[in-house]
Task: inverse folding
């Protein structure tokens, strides 16, 4: 486990993995480069992989990230998170309920929940969730079952309704990163932008500059 | 949790669920009838269901089975087993490793592993497994990714090589149940035979009579 989680620091730039998009160089090389460039959190998402190699991959990433102080979240599978000692779990609306995830994970773990509308956010406000993944902000090619995009107006609207950290995902790119942050996101999550980048470290660095307003 | 698990008693007749095969009457009605007829163990297998309804269904079955003293096993998902307080987990060769399942589940839980060959059984002998599911014994239509059938000769061969309880699955029917038990199985697991039965209680009763050699 990462010693002490500072949500606002650690949730700033999520790399959500897609092993197919990472290509031949492999997921670990992309993760290492993205973190070097400024990714503050890694969410391992494996929808097609068998559980045994999923656990092995999760352990390899945990070993890579722990010395760097970067939290590892597991998408959906609480048992994989427990097996590899991950720092948290990210679930969607149809995954295990956040109450159950919280109860099964060790104290201090991060529990994230995907929110596709203001109504879902309101329903989740009583649930033991640390941050919301706002999804999708824009059109995205990575997720085929995504809801209609929230747009910047949707981010602003949800921002006005909750104190919880908001991580925006879906169609995030260099051209809109600053606008999404200005609309009230606390962090951004990207799949393609880093997994497909020729130089993931450089892509993460540029994205952080745009998010942070640094030159 | 069922108070005290007696493996030879509780593993005798597994009902492995298939909600589609259970049809409109629903999985709970089939489970209740099968247990009334003589099923000693229920394994909830849900390959297509979202996690949230999976947990809800598991809790409903646990509530149904606990007063009857019948253990509930969950196929593959350790997190669902933990969330619903199941008595154990059954994993396949590509699921989470038995060592990890054992570590995550409470002490005294049942851990079952599918074995498709003598070589897999030998490799598993050092793993913390309570019973082997021998799969498939015969041709089966329920599992599309099944290995070649072991046949009665395969059951006999594996029986001679391990002290662990063996639960045979795959193409088990009234016509071969006694022969599979005679070949050395400690129990049988069935999907179609009970889930598709017009009268699951009667089907379970007939199967138990054939297995137990009672009139």
Result:
């Amino acid at each position: 486990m990462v010693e002490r989680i500072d949500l606002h620091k650690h949730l700033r730039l999520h790399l959500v993995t897609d092993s197919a998009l990472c290509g031949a160089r492999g997921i670990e090389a992309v993760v290492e480069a993205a973190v070097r460039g400024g990714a503050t959190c890694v969410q391992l998402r494996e929808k097609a992989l068998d559980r045994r190699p999923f656990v092995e991959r999760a352990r390899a990433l945990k070993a890579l990230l722990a010395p760097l102080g970067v939290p590892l979240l597991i998408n959906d599978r609480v048992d994989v998170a427990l097996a590899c000692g991950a720092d948290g779990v990210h679930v969607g609306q149809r995954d295990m309920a956040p109450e159950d995830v919280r109860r099964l994970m060790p104290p201090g773990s991060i529990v994230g929940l995907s929110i596709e509308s203001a109504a879902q956010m309101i329903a989740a406000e009583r649930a033991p969730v640390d941050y919301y993944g706002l999804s999708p902000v824009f059109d995205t090619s990575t997720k085929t079952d995504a809801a209609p995009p929230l747009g910047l107006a949707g981010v602003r609207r949800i921002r006005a309704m909750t104190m919880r950290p908001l991580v925006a995902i879906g169609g995030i790119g260099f051209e809109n990163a600053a606008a999404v942050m200005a609309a009230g996101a606390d962090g951004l999550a990207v799949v393609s932008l880093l997994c497909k980048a020729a130089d993931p470290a450089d892509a993460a660095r540029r994205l952080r500059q745009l998010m942070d307003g640094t030159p």
